[in-house]
Write a structure and sequence with these properties.
The chain is mostly beta strands. Helices cover 5% and strands 55% of the residues. The termini are close together. It is found in: Cell outer membrane.
Length: 711
């Protein structure tokens, strides 16, 4: 049943094929281990059923991403945070970056900078996976264009290399798994229109149709066009996600998915940080050419097949395969003071350069695993064994001739510069990655003690044609952890995990070594059903080794002698004492610094990582009386100062912003109003573009209205 319909249907009779919905009341959570949404919806029943449900809130009870098995969050010896569909809807989250502020210790990537960087979890780069499989990227170019077809977002903190890998290797800092909606047995869906500030025009839809006995189809689609608070900046995006589910028999399911995304926007390259922060520049200036600059485009096409067969209640086979085809055509214009600074007599007048960065990625990946549940050695065991095979081909180039096309005064911009011809000077990079891995995992329960142990053997082949590199790594990565139930709903946990990945685009005199990471963490987990309190409080220390750093004896080359460390404490808590009220709070204190390097001073803070950050958000829903259907909420998000580059140069001051939302459900219709930066706080965010310290102004006060009708 679509979750929006669930809010309006209690005791609804469903004829024909139906998928059961499990009520998530306190009694259910207290007595039954959490099961993943996939398992709730995969059992199809003929006939008429009565469904009784309470609305989903902000708290999730289980996750599949952490272990590739359906596991209650309180039993997972790792900090795992789940962003539910209800949270995404009620907070009007339109991008992954918007959603991730609800997780502690995460620095999202803005949509404008997805081509140049990755999101950060606990101080280190994290990777974005889609439905448990990688889609190659050393940047966030795979960042989902639309969240309309997303069921939930699961954030795994720390290395996750024992059951995940592919592309350039396994995630070192963390994994953000975006879980798509699945076809359901009951017809439903919605169409909606969102509009508001900066000429935003955003129609979107989610349609689910049963096609016959055991067959259902779903399609989600989204389009948005908008301008920006930044001069001359505009763009559009669209996404279509069709899926088809076949219940071949009561124990066998085949799911086919497609995803086709395209983003097109005038590229923004950032303002020189020191002058922008000092107020010497027009904060909304566009630092580039405004005539003839092609829009940068990102196109991602994914085709996925998932096969599941239950041999019995205790034996399950899962096979998932994907083909990913990504294409980036990046046209940029920018200032580059490290190469050619402005004349000291006119310090705000900058030479403007242009570049062209084409990039094509093709990736084929397969994961197959077998789950067996047994009672042995005095405990209950969930044994998982699997294999991963991944083949990735990356072709990229940089076209930059170092000749400015003119000058622009960023304090008083007069936009007359033309992009001109695409630069002719070019360097190419051709990389080939191949991964073959096998993994085993045991989740054992002995009364109040829950143990997790896993091991992965990976063979990773790296070819870099221009550098003449053809090398092979073999690595064993372990993971161990335990949780202990102190009292019902409160557990103590501790864990150790490792990660490794290939060095990407490394240029040195010696063949590259794999980068590695290790993580130690421990803390408390909560699932107090009577009070409605759930979440995790953790302390951690994570180290990243073999980081590429400049070779002091050979300019333009690198060596892998760098080491970085992040340590800190964090908390992610949700309090839902009654269905009408949800309160989310998170906080992270992170000390992320360089601990070994040849050039960068030891002790420099890692870029974009605030020492302190947090968010508090609340929602109240009127469930009865004359105002039934009305709901409203607000949140505040805060960051302390962050550095932009290594070595540290210009810190960006911290800030706090407030968002607010209100909605009214009546019949099949919903009207929603949302506000970003409610009090108009003027601030800057760190920004990644090449290596010069630049910033981007935060979004000013913006208001959006959404009209939705359920079908």
């Amino acid at each position: 049943m679509p979750e929006q319909d669930m809010r309006h249907s209690v005791g609804k009779h469903v004829a024909g094929i139906a998928s059961p919905v499990v009520a998530t009341n306190d009694a259910t959570r207290a007595s039954v281990p959490a099961r993943h949404e996939h398992d709730k919806k995969r059992v199809w029943t003929l006939g008429s059923v009565v469904v009784t449900a309470t609305p989903e809130g902000y708290a999730a009870t289980g996750s599949r991403s952490a272990t590739r098995t359906d596991t209650a969050l309180i039993d997972v010896p790792q900090s795992v945070q789940v962003l539910t569909r209800t949270l995404l809807d009620e907070q009007d989250r339109q991008t992954l970056a918007d959603a991730l502020v609800n997780v502690s210790g995460v620095t999202p990537v803005r949509p404008e900078e997805t081509l140049f960087t990755q999101p950060i979890v606990r101080g280190f780069p994290a990777e974005i996976y889609l439905d448990g499989l990688p889609a190659f990227g050393t940047t966030a170019s795979i960042d989902p264009t639309s969240l309309v077809g997303i069921e939930r977002v699961e954030v795994l903190k720390g290395p996750t290399s024992t059951v995940y890998g592919g592309g350039a290797g396994a995630p070192l800092g963390g994994l953000i798994n975006v879980v798509s909606k699945r076809p359901e047995a009951e017809a439903g869906g919605f169409v909606a229109l969102r509009t508001g500030s900066f000429s935003t025009w955003n129609p979107y839809a989610d349609l689910n149709v049963p096609l016959g006995a055991g067959v259902a189809a779903r399609i989600t689609a989204d389009y948005q066009g908008n301008t920006s608070w930044i001069d001359k900046l505009k763009g559009n995006r669209w996404s279509v996600q069709p899926s088809l589910s076949f219940q071949l028999d009561p124990d066998t399911e085949l799911l086919l998915r497609g995803q086709y995304d395209r983003r097109s926007q005038v590229e923004y390259s950032g303002l020189p940080a020191a002058q922008a922060l000092a107020g010497q520049l027009d904060r909304d200036a566009f630092p580039g050419t405004t005539t003839g600059q092609p829009r940068s485009t990102t196109e991602n096409r994914l085709t996925t097949a998932e096969f599941r067969h239950d041999f019995s209640d205790d034996v399950r086979l899962m096979v998932t395969g994907r083909h990913f085809d990504g294409r980036v055509r990046d046209y940029g214009s920018f200032v580059y003071p490290e190469f050619l600074p402005p004349d000291p007599a006119t310090p705000t007048v900058y030479p403007i350069f242009t570049l062209y960065l084409p990039n094509t990625v093709k990736e084929d990946t397969l994961d197959a695993n077998l789950l067996v549940r047994v009672d042995a050695l005095g405990g209950k065991h969930e044994l998982l064994g699997g294999i991963d095979v991944d083949r990735t081909r990356v072709d990229s180039a940089v076209r930059f001739d170092g000749v400015p096309v003119g000058e622009l005064d960023l304090a008083r911009p007069n936009y007359t510069l033309a992009f001109g011809a695409i630069p002719s000077a070019s360097t190419t990079q051709t990389n080939r990655y191949r991964t073959v891995a096998a993994y085993v995992q045991d989740q054992a329960t002995y009364g109040r003690l829950h143990l997790l142990g896993s091991l992965r053997l990976t063979q990773f082949n790296l070819r870099q044609l221009e550098q003449g590199i053809d090398t092979r790594y073999s690595r064993v990565t372990p993971r161990v952890g335990a949780t202990f139930d102190l009292v019902p709903g409160v557990a103590l946990y501790a864990a150790y995990a490792t990660g490794f990945r290939g060095a990407v685009n490394f240029i040195g005199l010696e063949p590259p070594k794999p980068e590695t990471s290790s993580n130690v963490e421990g803390g408390l987990k909560f699932a107090l059903t009577r009070s409605g309190l759930s979440g995790t409080v953790a302390a951690f220390e994570q180290t990243r080794r073999n980081v590429a750093t400049a070779d002091p004896n050979h300019p333009l080359f690198s060596i892998q002698s760098g080491e970085q460390r992040a340590r800190g404490v964090e908390g992610d808590l949700t309090w839902e004492p009654v269905p009408a009220f949800s309160l989310l709070a998170n906080y992270a204190h992170t000390e992320a610094e360089v601990t070994k390097d040849t050039i960068i001073p030891v002790g420099d803070r890692l870029p974009r990582v605030p020492r302190n950050s947090g968010r508090v958000a609340a929602r109240y829903r009127v469930l009865g009386g004359f105002a039934k259907g009305l709901s409203f909420g607000a949140g505040v998000t805060a960051f302390s100062a962050r550095d932009i580059t290594l070595p540290n140069s210009v810190p960006v001051p911290g800030y706090a912003v407030v968002d607010a939302q209100a909605a009214y459900d009546f019949g099949r219709f919903t009207v929603e109003l949302s506000a970003v930066n409610l009090f108009g706080r003027n601030a800057f965010d760190t920004y990644q573009y090449l290596s010069f310290p630049v910033v981007i102004p935060t979004q000013p006060r913006s208001v959006y209205v959404t009209l939705k009708t359920r079908l």
